[in-house]
Amino acid sequence: MSTKELQKLETIQNVCDKRIRQIDASKILNLSRRHIQRLVNQYRQFGANGLISKKRTQPSNRQFNATLKKQVIDLIQTHYFDFGPTLATEKLSEIHDIRLSTETIRKWMISVKLWKPRVKKRRKIYQPRARRDCIGELIQLDGSPHDWFKGRADKCTLLVFIDDATSAIMHLYFCDSESTFSYMAATKQYIEQHGKPVALYTDKHGVFRVNHASNKDRNKLTQYGRALKELNIELICANTPQAKGRVERANLTLQDRLVKEMRLAGINGIEEANEWLSSFIDNYNKRFAKPAKRQLNVHRPIYETPQELYDIFSWQTSRKVTKSLTIQYDKVMYLLETKPENEHLVSKNIMVHDYPDGQIDIKYLGQSLDYSIFDKLERINQGEIVENKRLDAVLRLAMVEQERLESEGLRERSRSDTPRRQEQRRQSRMNPVMYDQAK
């Protein structure tokens, strides 16, 4: 018996034993008094079995005819055995004029093993993690691409530094995209303002770690990882977005509040916004920051000189010097000065420092070398692999390059566009055969 039927049995038994009245039983079971009398008669005649529903084990009055079910299954097995339930339902309706619901077809296909139901994945449980004890012990870092200026400027990315112990915003930085140089510039500003934190907590973006399958032991470092290692700052990558939920939730808040605050302040560009952000950070932290468990700031002082920081936050690449005292970097050939003291550099590896401001420095054992540029070619490779977060910046670069090439082409055509050549082009469009014979 079901739970409902057991409750009904107890109530009817109380009526038969005259513990309660039939009118009270009708209120308890929400049934009419006449139906209570019927139940009492069935109980006295058949006992507890008289209260069990007679519809149990009986086929439903709304079920489809067995002949129709067999016909549909035969059609599916003959013509649509490799179809899914949705497509099979459409074909039965269009071709055979049999209109049934997709769920009905799915159940019938499962019954004859023509369709295997998908097993629902078990939902992952992410339990909350306790905050760090001190300020600067763990800084969560993330980039948030968004239309921050709501059409007043191009879409850009906001780099957000959140302290794990207090949920306070430590630093904000607007940039075009999540590139290595953008993170280097933002991190340099952070440590100059607050000092060096113990660790940075990021996602698995290609800026932070080498995601290639060949890096199984994780011994290869990205340029950003190399810079943090030289500064003795740990870099930890989260496995899921939920693991660094504080900065993810802060991004949602910033995409609402920061956008509106910049509109009220009349901020319409990246440079203007970066200068204004300090006042917004102070206001935000007064509202949302939490006190740390221990009133101790574990940020470490900076012992590196400005020039050392300038070198650390650069793109450092090793190149081998050729017999002609040349190296090639980023589609540019650099000529080292032909001095006697440079002749021993042949076949040796030297370091190329590419700085965020566009400067290039070539060093050997920490000493800068004089050089000159031989050839340079700037363009985007056809078929270049571009990450989704860098797509906006690459498209802007492509548009600038295309405008430059088109303007140069127009100038070249305007120089050589004499009346005679205009007439020749007009005739060639009218009759290409006659134009070829004339030539």
Automatic annotation (TrEMBL):
Domain spans labelled Integrase catalytic: 124-314
Start and end residues of each stretch annotated as Disordered: 406-439
Compositionally biased spans, kind Basic and acidic residues: 406-426
PANTHER family to which the protein is assigned, alphabetical: INTEGRASE PROTEIN, TRANSPOSASE RV3428C-RELATED
Protein name: ISNCY family transposase
